[in-house]
């Protein structure tokens, strides 16, 4: 009895830090955000009273300023998700496959080279790409004009160049994380499966399709989910590189939520926007789960 009680006490002690931090940094802020979203909450004046669903109605009613902010930010964010997720997953997989086939003495070097950019802050990354793609005197434009191009490309002031700049910066910055996850998954593939495929005369594509892909597809699905979530939270690159331009075409949803809270002094509406964003993300991720497990059935 004493030994069993001791195990229970230790189990509670081991689990309690997670429970405490979960409540403090996830459950409590979420509950507070939901509560604030039902109030006319002014950042400077505080709670001005319960308004029920009025904040949500203002956001979802066509023609209101909050509806325009929400819809514009949502469209821009969804567009970025669509253009960023495929390269972030496929290029990471390609790099992982290349590194996996390198001699062992080179693997660590190239893993470090491709992963090191992930450790750089978004501020530094944005400064690098502002220098590279600056319209006047930027490195990329200087190279292109030295090769014979007559006019400089307005990378940050025209579309689709602004989105292309954001995409290139994001891929360069974050590709290393997905690559490392794929490398770890490839390391878990049984080498005897490749040996059997070689005996059957399988080529590189056949080995990937029938050996590699089935073994890493669960990790690949996890990477897709994490990449969608990360792309949905687009903020730093567009804030620091394009500042939402040109003509608010790169304003992400988080940027417009920030505008509602700090620019318009409406914390209640900003909280409602954030919750609607969370619901949309949950629906999209739920649909991805449904597609993935439907294929298994």
From TrEMBL:
It is a multi-pass membrane protein. Its main location: membrane. The chain crosses the membrane at residues 12-38, 78-100, 112-133, 161-183, 219-236, 269-291. InterPro entries: ABC_transporter_permease, MetI-like, MetI-like_sf. PROSITE patterns: ABC_TM1. Residues 74-288 form the ABC transmembrane type-1 domain. The keyword Zinc does not apply. CDD domains: TM_PBP2. Keywords: Cell membrane, Membrane, Transmembrane, Transmembrane helix, Transport. Belongs to the binding-protein-dependent transport system permease family. This is Sugar ABC transporter permease.
């Amino acid at each position: 009895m004493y030994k069993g009680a001791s195990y229970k006490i230790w189990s509670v002690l081991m689990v309690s830090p997670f429970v405490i931090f979960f409540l403090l940094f996830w459950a409590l802020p979420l509950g507070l955000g939901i509560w604030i979203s039902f109030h006319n909450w002014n950042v400077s004046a505080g709670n001005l009273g319960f308004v029920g669903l009025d904040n949500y109605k203002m956001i979802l009613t066509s023609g209101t300023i909050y509806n325009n902010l929400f819809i514009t930010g949502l469209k821009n964010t969804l567009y970025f998700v669509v253009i960023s997720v495929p390269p972030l997953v496929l290029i990471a997989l390609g790099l992982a496959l290349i590194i996996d086939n390198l001699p062992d003495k080179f693997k660590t070097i190239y893993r470090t080279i491709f992963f090191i950019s992930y450790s750089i802050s978004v501020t530094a990354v944005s400064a690098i790409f502002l220098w590279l793609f600056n319209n006047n005197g930027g490195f990329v434009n200087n190279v292109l004009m030295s090769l014979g191009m007559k006019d400089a490309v307005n990378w940050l002031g025209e579309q689709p160049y602004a989105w292309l700049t954001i995409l290139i910066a994001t891929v360069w910055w974050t590709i290393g994380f997905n690559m490392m996850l794929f490398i770890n998954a490839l390391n878990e593939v049984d080498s005897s499966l490749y040996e059997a495929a070689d005996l059957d005369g399988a080529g590189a594509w056949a080995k990937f399709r029938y050996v590699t892909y089935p073994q890493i597809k669960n990790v690949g699905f996890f990477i897709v989910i994490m990449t969608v979530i990360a792309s949905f939270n687009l903020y730093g690159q567009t804030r620091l590189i394009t500042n939402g331009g040109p003509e608010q075409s790169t304003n992400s949803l988080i940027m417009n939520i920030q505008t509602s809270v700090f620019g318009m002094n409406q914390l209640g509406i900003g909280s409602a926007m954030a919750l609607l964003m969370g619901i949309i993300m949950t629906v999209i991720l739920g649909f991805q789960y449904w597609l993935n497990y439907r294929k298994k059935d």
